[in-house]
């Protein structure tokens, strides 16, 4: 079986992106497959566990019943579920999406200080993801955008620890913010200030070849080399490369090491394995465990390589 045929045996959320990004199918075929996300597979399953008030697990960042402890952060609350639905490609204009977003806007409150959900809270890693999902689902997130633009650090990126005195950016925080700003640009056109901030954050990552400390040349975190999905707030090199591809950027020599690291993980059958599952409770697992063939990683890696190799 070809790797494309194998991908097309997957969930509608996989299939519509394969059609769009790897087979150049027509827009009507892509749209018809994407529409199935609302009613079938992973998208329908996530929508089915939405609470009557529109939230998931009763909370914004954490489940209502969460009191700490356990292994990893729970991923069942609203922000993580909305991010996953965005990645699955739930149509923002669908009935389910419009209903959910209206209820989240009315009822969602952040655990930090009870702020309204789409007003954001104080951490730029959370606010960047909220900008992304808000923009994707058609919410005006201007106040959060203004906040993250003001919080950009002198080295070009962002860090959730800035409120506690950090003056150095973080890969994890920066990727969440630049992804959110890019989604804002896609849906609203953005502004010169938004584009400048996003480009500055991307340059922060590129100056470090997407994986190394600029000061010592060491890999920042070995976990960045493991390809994960869903990734939630966590950084890894494939997430960074897929973001840059989606931004319309030209391939840059500073991406080369990360690209070859992704390429080196392709198996002889054309597939990639799931490299990491971020610990924590989930509504259900999208794929098998670590070390099993992953349609998500394979789809994202193939479209990155298609972009990279197509420019050479």
The average pLDDT is: 96
Binned, the helix content reads 40-55%
What is Rg? 19 Å
Shape: globular
Enumerate how many helices there are, as a single number.
Answer: 13
Class by alpha and beta content: mainly alpha
The biggest sheet amounts to: none
Low-confidence stretches: none
Report the β-strand fraction as a percent range.
under 5%
Distance between the termini: 28 Å
Tally of DSSP β-strands: 0
Report the order of strands and helices: HHHHHHHHHHHHH
Offer a few descriptive terms.
312 residues, mainly alpha, 13 helices, 47% helix, globular
Which helices and strands appear, and what pairs or packs with what?
Elements: H1 3-7, H2 12-21, H3 27-35, H4 41-48, H5 78-88, H6 95-107, H7 124-136, H8 142-150, H9 171-188, H10 192-206, H11 237-246, H12 256-264, H13 295-310
Helix pairs in contact: 2-3, 2-13, 5-7, 7-8, 7-9, 9-10, 11-13
Can you characterise this structure?
The structure is a single chain. This protein is mainly α and 312 residues long. Among the domains are: 120-207, no CATH class; 222-312, no CATH class. It is built from 13 helices and no strands. The protein has helices at residues 3-7, 12-21, 27-35, 41-48, 78-88, 95-107, 124-136, 142-150, 171-188, 192-206, 237-246, 256-264, 295-310. It starts with a helix and ends with a helix. 44% of the residues are buried.
């Amino acid at each position: 079986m070809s790797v494309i045929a194998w991908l097309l045996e997957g969930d509608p959320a996989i299939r519509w992106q394969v059609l769009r990004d790897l087979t150049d199918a027509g827009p009507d075929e892509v749209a018809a497959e994407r529409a199935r996300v609302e009613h079938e597979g992973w998208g329908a399953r996530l929508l089915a566990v939405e609470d009557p008030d529109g939230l998931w697990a009763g909370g914004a960042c954490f489940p209502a019943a969460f009191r700490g402890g356990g292994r990893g952060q729970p991923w069942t609350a609203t922000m993580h579920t909305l991010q996953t639905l965005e990645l699955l490609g739930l149509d923002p204009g669908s009935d389910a999406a419009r209903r959910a977003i209206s209820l989240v806007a009315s009822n969602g409150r952040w655990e930090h200080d009870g702020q309204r959900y789409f007003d954001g809270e104080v951490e730029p890693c959370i606010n960047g993801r909220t900008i992304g999902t808000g923009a994707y689902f058609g919410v005006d997130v201007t106040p959060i955008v203004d906040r993250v633009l003001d919080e950009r650090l002198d080295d070009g990126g962002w860090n959730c620890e800035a409120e506690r005195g950090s003056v150095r950016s973080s890969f994890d925080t920066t990727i969440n913010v630049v992804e959110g700003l890019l989604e804002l640009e896609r849906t609203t056109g953005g502004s010169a200030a938004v584009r400048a901030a996003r480009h500055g954050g991307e340059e922060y990552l590129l100056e470090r070849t997407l994986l190394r400390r600029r000061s010592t040349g060491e890999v920042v975190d070995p976990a960045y080399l493991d390809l994960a999905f869903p990734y939630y707030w966590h950084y890894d090199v494939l997430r960074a490369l897929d973001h840059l591809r989606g931004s319309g950027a030209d391939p840059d020599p500073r991406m080369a090491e990360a690209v070859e690291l992704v390429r080196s993980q392709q198996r002889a059958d054309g597939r990639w394995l799931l490299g990491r599952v971020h610990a924590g409770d989930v509504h259900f697992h999208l794929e098998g465990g670590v070390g099993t063939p992953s349609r998500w990683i394979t789809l994202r890696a193939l479209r990155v390589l298609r972009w990279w190799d197509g420019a050479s």
